[in-house]
Amino acid sequence: MIKIENVRKSFGELEVLKGINLDVEQGEVLSIIGGSGSGKSTLLYCINAIENIQGGKIFVDGIDVHNKATNKDQLRQKLGMVFQQWNSFPHLTVLENVALAPQIVKKMSKEEAIEIAQKELKHVGLGDKFDMYPTKMSGGQQQRLAIARALAMRPDYMLFDEVTSALDPELVGEVLDTLRILREEGMTMICVTHEIAFAREVSDQVAFFHKGVIEEMGPPEQVISNPQKETTQAFLSKVL
Ligand code: ADP
Ligand code: MG
């Protein structure tokens, strides 16, 4: 599981995370919602040690992420991350894009990596696009490629940072469908998202971030359908 205890994070004078507490159990989906600049992306970067923290602790499967002795590369193999926009390697085919990291990072043989890449591309509905070049793909296909690339590393957790925010509206659904499949399969996920209806549908927990604190957290029936705090109500009235 992922355990976040009183995490504080600053950029210089600016305190961006002001004591975040969160637990994500195996197989759970946590959605993080909240306004721009509230610290959502920063928290994801702290979880996989792209950013350091100034206080508190983060544990992934009991491993203290920010302990100096922790092997960060090993830790990151547990955590797949997909961003709003992902730049694939334009000179490699879709299949080569997905098969690359398993060979380099996991030292897999080319055959083994290709096999996994094919499987994961089918998984995200790109089974007929192996030989295409990413630049020829739609935004929705590119995001599914990004998801396949993360899955090919066989992570235990997936972190999604607004993976549909840059997409044309008609392409959002196919990416959300892919996330639904992962959820059904029991993948543990943290999704930063502006898709409130999606968050309501798939989440076990929803955390509403506001200025670096969790203002409200709980099941979606509570946080989204029956928010208690004025800040949550104001945010939802803008985005729903
Ligand atoms: P969100 O994802 O909720 O929109 P972020 O986590 O990206 O918010 O950012 C939270 C705050 O931290 C913002 O005020 C942002 O400008 C600031 N910030 C993010 N990354 C950096 C950085 N590398 N250096 C300085 N400030 C940053
Ligand atoms: Mg962000």
TrEMBL record:
UniProt keyword Transport, yes or no: yes
SUPFAM superfamilies recorded: P-loop containing nucleoside triphosphate hydrolases
Compartments where located: Cell inner membrane
InterPro entries, A to Z: AAA+_ATPase (IPR003593), ABC_ATPase_HisP-typ (IPR030679), ABC_transporter-like_ATP-bd (IPR003439), ABC_transporter-like_CS (IPR017871), MetN_ABC_transporter-like (IPR050086), P-loop_NTPase (IPR027417)
SMART domains: AAA (SM00382)
Topology term for the membrane: Peripheral membrane protein
GO molecular function annotation: ABC-type amino acid transporter activity; ATP binding; ATP hydrolysis activity
Location of the ABC transporter domain: 2-236
PROSITE patterns, alphabetized: ABC_TRANSPORTER_1 (PS00211), ABC_TRANSPORTER_2 (PS50893)
UniProt GO cellular component terms: plasma membrane
Record keyword Transmembrane present: no
Keyword set, alphabetical order: Amino-acid transport, ATP-binding, Cell membrane, Membrane, Nucleotide-binding, Transport
Family (UniProt): Belongs to the ABC transporter superfamily.
Protein name: Putative amino acid ABC transporter ATP-binding protein
Species annotation: Neptuniibacter caesariensis
